[in-house]
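Project standup — Tuesday

K.O.: blocked on the structure for the chain from last sprint. Re-posting the sequence here as requested.
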Amino acid sequence: MGNLDFKIKLANTFATLFLVSSQGFSFSGWFLSHSYDFGPRDFAIILASILHFLLIGFTIYQYLPSSPKDVYEAIGYWYLLIAVLNSGVSFLWYYQVNLFAFIGLLWQVATLVFIYHRFRDYPPRNGTDHAFINAPFSIYTAYSLFIVLWQVFQFSDHTKHSQIAHVFIILFIGFIALHLVDYSHRKDWVYSLTTAWILLGAAVFLDDAPHTVSLIVVGVLISAVARTLIPNWLERFNRRFSRWANRIGERTPLLS
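H.V.: unblocked you, prediction finished:
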């Protein structure tokens, strides 16, 4: 593969700076008013921190010779568009221009889904590709989809605290995550774990039926992730054990 266009590298670098700074601005109020207790917001802060770390890795990885240039070219300038939209949404939320912020959020989710959909043609070659290319967009897409659905029901006082609305959100995002890890060829366990983490955080402050449903969905998703990962781990272990056994057999002199 040839060298990646420098303009794309520069765009991705600026995009990461935009994202990290704008999301840091969004969470600054949480940090300043943070108490010593562990609450639902901490789940979002931890998830955002992991996402930022992986996106920084995504940006650095593109400069390495071993990076998949075709994948970065497929992403193109869409990542920069996501960063610009995210920055705009953050500032609009801050100044309480909620309607325009929500419209920007819809565009952001649509762009993320577009990139996520393109990844089906570029499966990760190894663990590094999966960690620094596929994983951050899986996390970002899962988190953004939850925010969109949650915000839809926040515009009305009748649905803001409705248990039916909360259960619908939980089941909807849980179904998508279960499909992607259990029934899709992607076997996207990162997306599923992200959704499980979000729902675990939601269960902390939800009561009654939404609390119970959230915990049930978390258990189902974790079970699905285990069904996906454990067979792969066992297969890798068996392959390595076979190689070790063969090496020992080759080095051990035959008894005559």
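K.O.: great, moving the ticket to review. The chain has ten helices and no strands. The chain has a mean pLDDT of 86.
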